[in-house]
Give the backbone structure.
Amino acid sequence: MYVVSIRYPRKNGKEFDFGHWAEVHMPLGIATFKKANGIAPKRVMVQHETFGMDGESESTDAYITVWLLFDTRKGLDGFMKLHNDKVASAELSDDFDNYAPLPPHISLGQLRIFENMNDVLEKGNALLNN
C-alpha cells in the first residue's frame, strides 16, 4: 500500500477550520485528483483534535494529519503531478486560506500495517525474555 501524508502545522494563536477542510477542501481535493488522474484514494484517514503528551492541543505541532491511501504507486505519482501543476490545482490552492494558517508538510511513501498483534506480541515477549 502507498500513502500520502499531509500534516497541517500549528501556528500559535491561529485556528484551523476542520469543518471547512472536511466539508469543502477534502471533497474538492479528491474530485480534483480523480479528474486529473482517473483514480482516487482507496481511503482517507484523518487524525484531528490533536493534543500532546500533556493533554494540551498547543503542545503538538500539527492541527491534523491526513493519510491518502492508494493500492499502487500510481497514486503517489498522481499526487506529485497534481501538486506540481499550478493550473490543475489552482482551485485547491485558492481554498487554502479558508481553513489553514500555514501550508501543509507533505511526504509520500509506502505504508506497512501490522495487523496481527498476537505475532507482534509473541516476538516482543521473546525479545523481553532474552
